[in-house]
Amino acid sequence: MSENYQTVLNHLLFHKALISETEGGQRINRYLAMLNEIDQGMHVAVRDPFEKSVVAAFELVLERQMDPWEINLTPFTKLFLEKVKKEGTVNFVTAGKLVFLAWSILKLQSDKVLLNAMPPEAPPDDGAWDLDMFRDPADLDYNQVVLDGTATPLTEAIRREGRRAVTLMELMDAFDEARREA
Q1: Percent residues over pLDDT 70 in the chain
Q2: What is the pLDDT of residue 106?
Q3: How far apart are CA 64 and CA 138, in angstroms?
Q4: What is the domain partition of the chain in residue ranges?
Q5: 14-28, 70-84, 98-112, 144-158, range with the lowest pLDDT
Q6: Are 117 and 158 in contact (CB under 8 A)?
Q7: Rounded CA gap, 62 and 56, in Å?
Q8: Distance from C-alpha of 76 to C-alpha of 106, rounded to nearest angstrom
């Protein structure tokens, strides 16, 4: 039993403990059985293409020793698509869902960076007098105003927020959602 297998097992057991009694946890029990078969070196035989996708995801997490609490979707999607191509059984709904999830995260991040990088709009010049006495005193650097006679513009640095990786169970939930949509 590898250390990564134990980490994935603990992750699944944690989520099984969170499930309500009415749901019963059959889905996670299926995942636990798949994980056990993979760890024993057995070939997991399933006919359902969605189940094959789940098995492929578990195999990737175990083979690449990914942390089930922090799976970065961008490299995971690339590895998943390579694995699916190699095995020859392509489930386009699940593969498309993974690509869409990775794209969505990257799109949100790039939109945020673009918004922060846009220069502020200049106020329209209406020809009125500019009276500095009506400025908010907190906005002024008095030393600079006294030396130059003008206020210095404030330029904020562009900060890129860290991206949140997904957990293995969030990934499995995306697979189940793709199954329901198909």
Answers
A1: 61
A2: 72
A3: 53
A4: 3-111+161-181
A5: 144-158
A6: yes
A7: 10
A8: 14
* Strands annotated E in 67-149: none
pTM (two decimals): 0.49
8 A C-beta contact, residue 36 and residue 154: no
Both tokens assigned to 20: 């309500």
CB 9 within 8 A of CB 68: no
- At 49, which helix (H) or strand (E)? helix 49-63
**Any idea of the CA torsion for 92, 95, 101, 107, to the nearest 10 degrees?**
-80
Please state, in angstroms and rounded to a whole number, the distance separating the CA atoms of residues 168 and 134.
56
Residue written as tokens 């846009």? 118
Burial tier of 112 (Cβ tally within 10 Å: 0-12, 13-18, 19+): middle
110 — pLDDT class (breaks 50, 70, 90) = confident
Q: What does the alpha-carbon distance between residue 6 and residue 2 come to, in Å, rounded to a whole number?
A: 6
By CB atoms closer than 10 A (0-12, 13-18, 19+), residue 160 is: exposed
Query: What pLDDT, on a 0 to 100 scale, did the predictor assign at position 63?
Result: 82
Residues in the chain: 182
